[in-house]
Design goal:
With 61 residues, the chain is mainly α. It starts with a helix and ends with a helix. Pfam families: CsbD. InterPro entries: CsbD, UPF0337_stress_rsp, YjbJ_sf.
Length: 61
């Protein structure tokens, strides 16, 4: 697993925590920020995974 994949997973976890905190405190802004952070994390994780797979493809040849 690449650094970007780990960063993405971490961002997703932080975003989920922020979203849940927003729900608990009835803070729609914090809840929305958490959802946004989760999406950013998913994108970062996906890019890291793609980069790793491409690198592995060329390293195997």
């Amino acid at each position: 697993m690449s650094d970007k994949e780990l960063e993405g997973k971490w961002d997703q976890a932080k975003g989920k925590a922020k979203e849940e905190f927003g729900k608990l405190t009835d803070d729609k802004s914090t809840e929305a920020e958490g959802k946004t952070d989760q999406v950013k994390g998913e994108i970062k994780e996906g890019l890291g995974e793609a980069k790793r797979k491409i690198k592995n493809t060329f390293d195997d040849k």
